[in-house]
Amino acid sequence: MGCKNSKHGREEEIWTSAHAHASSLSQASFGKAENNNAKKKEIITKSFHETKTRKLATGTHFSENDCVVLKTLFDSVTHEDNAIDEGEFVEALFGKKKKLELEKSGSIGSDSKNATNDDDGDDETTKNFYKKMFCFEKRLFEKFDSNDEGYIFFDEFVRTLNVFHPRTSTKVKAQFAFDLYDVNGNGSISREELKTLVQGVMSRSVFLNLDDQAIERILDNTFEQVDIDKTSSISFDEFYRMVKENRKCIANMTIASLTTLSTEFPEFIFNDASETHD
Questions:
Q1: CB 182 within 8 Å of CB 174
Q2: 92-132 pLDDT tens trace
Q3: Which of 127, 175, 263, 267 has the least C-beta neighbours within 10 A?
Q4: Within 13 Å and on the Cβ side, how many CA atoms surround 212?
Q5: Is 255 left (phi over 0), alpha (psi -120 to 50) or beta?
């Protein structure tokens, strides 16, 4: 009887030990598989980003390293949704201070992806002033937002920013500038379209704070010289002719520092380029 119980206990002990060993092996295998899956996912993710930056570098004047730096800048202002809205765009290119000024204008909310503006009690004169003041940034955002979705993905950001690279051709820069001024997209720049953007640039420039009469004189001279066929609008051919004669008129289409991107690059890269308009 004692032998039977002893034998039974021994068998139970062996079974328990074997079960524990098998369980341990199973957990170890599961843990190893989980680690392998995590590592595989990390490799796939890294490969995807490397392929994407390589592709962007191939189609632009940016190197793969430049694209990595730009991704760091892009990620620093977005909220983990892989896209930036107008406020985040302004923060990336012009800095946090400019974003706060844009919010103050009522053009965007403090969280422009979700916020709605409350106009009650706002001074309309002040709002209109800020609306003119930031029309350059708003038009720039519209040009970067190639799909007209209200937000910008990283590839749109890099490809459009490439226009401002010093090695991009004058004609490409001229076409971008022309489209920027051609607000209604009808293929020509009207006096009113040009005036709106010039006023926006002038209204916040430290060096070019001109009154309305001075701006009107600038417009008179511009159309007199550029509007060759006297249609009261400027075609791209007329605009490009002006650019070739005086490249300073699109000086704000070049950001020299895009050739020296590094991980220590400042939080914004536009550095009031719009104020260099001549």
A1: no
A2: 888 787 778 777 766 665 554 444 444 444 566 555 555 66
A3: 263
A4: 3
A5: beta
Residue 124's pLDDT is 61
Token pair recorded at residue 14: 């062996």
What pairs with residue 233 in β-bridges?
190
Q: What is the pLDDT of residue 108?
A: 61
- As given in the structure block, the two tokens for residue 257 are 């520092």
User: Which residues of the chain carry a pLDDT beneath 50?
Assistant: 2, 4, 30, 40-48, 112-121, 266, 268, 272-278
For the purposes of burial, counting CB atoms within 10 Å of the CB of 217, is it exposed (0-12), middle (13-18) or buried (19 or more)? exposed
Are 165 and 93 a contacting pair, CB within 8 Å?
A: no
Tokens 């914004």 -> residue: 268
With beta carbons less than 8 A apart as the criterion, state whether 120 and 130 touch. no
pTM of the model: 0.70
Q: Whose structure tokens read 């590839």? A: 155
